[in-house]
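User: Please predict the structure of the protein below. I'd like the answer in structure-token form so I can feed it into my own downstream comparison script.

Assistant: Understood. Taking the following sequence of 201 residues as input:
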Amino acid sequence: MTTKIFISTILVLTFTSCDNTRTQDKPKQETPKALEDKSSSYELVSKRGYDDLVESLYNELVTKDIDLKKLEDKIDELNKSKNDTTELFDKYNGKNQSYFSSADRHVVDIKDSLLRNKMRIIVTNQLSKYNSRIGKHNELLKIIDAKQMTISDLHNVLKIVRTLPLIDKYQKDNLTDTKSFEGYINQQEKAIQLVDTLSKK
């Protein structure tokens, strides 16, 4: 529910700020570098198949907006500190999981079936105790992962919402007229007529 409210708030704020910039900043709004036709970098990158125009436009906005810069710094900080936060537990859990895998292999190697079954029960009970001990840790890790996914989703929403006005303005300002298309179609018509005339001779 809070996610939906947050997304709605972002959308409303962005579109109202977009309308404000259209009325206030009308004098001269420079074209974002990512949309300039001066270089062929867009074509080259597109051919390589990894162009991300949303990312390029958003990064330009970040360089000009203090609040966006603070947000990006915060997200970077969270991403870096996640590993530091879980590192000790990950090592601890890794050693325990490694132990139980090893114990299982040793149990399989016991030839006496009664003794093997007895040891299997002992190892299984110990594993259950261990899983119970780390239950809270696993629940908190699930919450961390869920919140990280929410941040990632909202981050993508923000990038799209903040760059849509830029591409909208570019579309309006740079749409070519249809004269060249119409002229080319006329040339095609003449060629068709000529071919048709010559084929009837």
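That's the full token string. Helices lie at 2-24, 41-48, 53-64, 66-109, 113-133, 135-174, 179-199.
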